[in-house]
Amino acid sequence: MTGSDAAGDEVGGGTDRDEATADLPDHLRYLFVLSRPRFWLYLAGPVAVGVTYGIDGVDGLFTPTTVALAGYFLVPANVFLYGVNDLFDADVDEHNPKKDDREARWQGNRLALAAVIAAALLGTGTFALTPRVAWPFLAGFFVLAAGYSAPPLRFKTTPFADSVSNGLYILPGAAAYATVAGTVPPTAALAGAWLWTMGMHTFSAIPDVEPDREAGIRTTATLLGESRTYAYCLACWVAAAAAFAAVDLRFGALLGVYPIFVAWVAVSAVSVDRAYWWFPALNTAVGTLLAMGGLWRVYPVWEVLG
């Protein structure tokens, strides 16, 4: 190699590094969109609820373990979950109109893939932070989060398996409860939360019916069609409210907002594509009320006001 060749390589390498540095803000922006910030609380919210109902005093609310769990399931877990989803849905998403606006198509760059792998590896640290009673819930989350989109399982392409597998969203909350309480959550609460996620997923899949059909993907929503999918969601959410009512009637009453919501969308002139983007706000409101109820259990509201 001549001196001029070496100099040229150095210049070329420097240019590549400069371009990579210049592209970094765009890569980070893409990762932010990929992680679905509107849905961050779908994983972190159940952690907050699980902690508030598992603790026996306010001193257990903010500990290194609870903060670490909340932090992981707020962002890194979403990078893992939706990164795997987008990676294996790249072809399908070419025809998905949702990817034209508030979501992003898989770009296939090395930074994105490295971020997804790093998020998965970081998740293994949650096992070191938690007692064994929480491990089945954590393991269930990672298996379902990957298996939902990745072959050979790819639950999302099998009607009803796609719906049932979305119980993954409540498993971080169950793990958080088990971590602070030292025991598993009430069975009725787990059943109610799982049924809620089944309805949530299937309702969210309605806007994807046409893109999925065009791509040859079979889901609960494509199998049932729009009107019967509304009925399926209604049944899931009525059952969820009943299960939560078995734990506490107030929980059942609060969860009763979901059957009302889906019935209203089904009979109104509101487009489901539009209602889909209201759903995170509804879930945040309900989750906040649930978490506040758990907090007031150990720190009554009259003490706060007094």
From TrEMBL:
Top-level taxon: Archaea
Signal peptide, first to last residue: none
Gene3D superfamilies listed in its UniProt record: UbiA prenyltransferase
Keywords: Membrane, Transmembrane, Transmembrane helix
GO cellular component: plasma membrane
Subcellular location, record wording: Cell membrane
Transmembrane portions of the chain: 39-55, 67-88, 109-129, 174-196, 229-247, 254-272, 278-299
Alphabetical list of CDD domains matching this protein: PT_UbiA_4
Matching Pfam families: UbiA
Record-linked PANTHER family: CHLOROPHYLL SYNTHASE (PTHR42723), CHLOROPHYLL SYNTHASE, CHLOROPLASTIC (PTHR42723:SF1)
Protein name: Prenyltransferase
